[in-house]
Amino acid sequence: MVILNHFYTLYLIAVVFYISECDSMIQINPDLCKGCYICVEICPKSVYVISNVTNKKDIKLPCPKNEEDCIICHLCELECPDQAIYVEDRR
Ligand code: SF4
Ligand code: SF4
């Protein structure tokens, strides 16, 4: 039980780190992402990179690292098969 709590704490730290690193108008729900990387492939502006942060399923999460290049086309949001992406329209 103690070991499980330890891993859960580490998981929460990783998620908080991921959110703070990737705090942006593009948000990815770590629990929904299955790591298909359609978002990485489909983005016309190469906004996403695959981060080293993993979710509960040990999947490396995509991160909108080059968000300043985003043209808010919503393609990634529309094509994500798990509705894990939300692109806030800040125009
Ligand atoms: S398209 Fe959705 S499920 Fe696939 S890697 Fe991107 S966020 Fe994750
Ligand atoms: S909204 Fe369009 S430009 Fe922005 S990250 Fe998604 S696919 Fe790329």
Structure description:
With 91 residues, the chain is an alpha+beta fold. It has one domain: Alpha-Beta Plaits (2-Layer Sandwich), CATH 3.30.70.20. It is built from three helices and four strands. The strands form two sheets. The protein has a two-stranded antiparallel ribbon with strand order 1-4. It is elongated and about 45 Å long. The termini are far apart. The model has no long low-confidence stretch (mean pLDDT 88). The protein binds iron/sulfur cluster (SF4) (2 copies). The site of one iron/sulfur cluster has 14 residues, from helix 3.
Quick structural overview:
The chain has 91 residues and is an alpha+beta fold. Helices cover 33% and strands 18% of the residues. A hairpin with a 5-residue loop joins strand 2 and strand 3.
Named CATH architecture? 2-Layer Sandwich
Query: Which term fits the overall shape?
Result: elongated
Question: Which secondary-structure class do the elements indicate?
Answer: alpha+beta
Q: Determine the fraction of residues in helical runs and give it as a percent range.
A: 25-40%
C-alpha Rg (nearest Å): 14 Å
- Count helical runs: 3
The low-confidence parts are none
